[in-house]
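Worked example 2:
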Amino acid sequence: MQAWLCENPVGVDALIWKELPTPVPQKGEVLIEIQAASLNFPDLLIVQNKYQMKPALPFVPGSEYAGVVQALGEGVTHLQVGQPVACLSGTGGFGTHTLAPAALCMPLPLGFPPVDAAAFIMIYATSWHALMDRAALKAGETVLILGAAGGVGTAAIQIAKAAGARVIAAASSEEKCELCKQLGADATINYSEHTPAKGLRDVIKQLTDGKGPDVIYDPVGGEFAEPAFRSIAWRGRYLVVGFASGPIPSLPLNLTLLKGASIVGVFWGDFARREPTANAEMMQTLASMYAKGQVKPVIDQTLPMSELHKAYEIMGSRSVKGKLVLVN
């Protein structure tokens, strides 16, 4: 097998494409021949030694991928050789083969292409867990989605619309705002046209007739967090999903009192670990929604696995709409 190996986590440039022995699955594992792997923000942080999970060196990055089961380890009974699966295991995806915990593999139904499957689990599981579980989103409520043209943002638009919510999508360019409208957003906000402290609050107020959004979905953090939170509706829920912009914001806690609002943490990975039955039911629901055409990953572009460095460069430029996927 071949894979991109991280021997020293000092950045993307240190990744080397290497020939490695094809591993043999141990108890509870499967060997997967990888067909496609998507690029997620943690995949950048992990090779810079900035991610919360720090795997033992050397390791193969690539948290999310799809492919075909090639061999089964002892005790694996719910999968079979030749079965297409998707997996989000944290590492291993940027290569031709990988070992994966069988418990983390999602069997794929017919008609689920590997490119879509490789871009599915992280963004839809995160967004469903955030909106439907943590925020208890109801039909008729208004959701403000920050970073709406990115992977989790595009998934959040689709899930919120399927739930019957009104969606305001915020993104950094007119092109990205147009994509959000195509996905079903009822209104859009172009960040570049507003100063954070006042302009964003004014336009949110205007788009909600002064009420504010019932739910704010924030995978971005940074300078827009506080003005967005100041705009939230009474009993609103502010979802802390991530910090793609870099800085982790500090919110004045008196705002939660004044608004009767909640700041809600979203950590889908630990939810899946702590509540595996609920997570499995959620994934079945999402697979059914895909089959019905209610959700579908937005694929910005696909690149050969050999062009991983180029894919990282594109992601770092903040120009990606939806997901980048590498294919073998």
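The radius of gyration is 20 Å. The CA atoms of residues 271 and 279 lie 7 Å apart.
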